[in-house]
Design brief:
Blueprint lengths: L8 E8 L2 E2 L5 E2 L2 E8 L4 E5 L5 H17 L5
Antiparallel strand pairs: 1-4, 2-3, 4-5
Length: about 70
């Protein structure tokens, strides 16, 4: 299995608060991503990357690993 149909996924994204500098500037926001594979109820939560895109890619890799490699379940 290399591709998961989009209708089998639930993708949630939210900002994770970062550091506030003097003057109220908000820096270091890390958008967290949670992907759920609906048929198997497998969840992947990632908030380590500096971009939503990177976090989404990592979460998708985790879902694929869990679905294709039994030792990751």
């Amino acid at each position: 299995m290399s591709d998961i149909p989009v209708d089998e996924l639930k993708i949630e994204v939210w900002p994770i608060p970062g550091i506030h500098h003097r003057g109220g500037q908000h820096v270091g926001t890390c958008p967290g991503v949670r992907i759920t594979h609906i048929p198997s109820d497998i969840h992947a939560y990632v908030d380590i990357g500096r971009s939503q895109h990177i976090n989404r890619l990592i979460a998708m890799d985790m879902i694929l690993a869990a679905l294709t490699h039994p030792k990751f379940r």
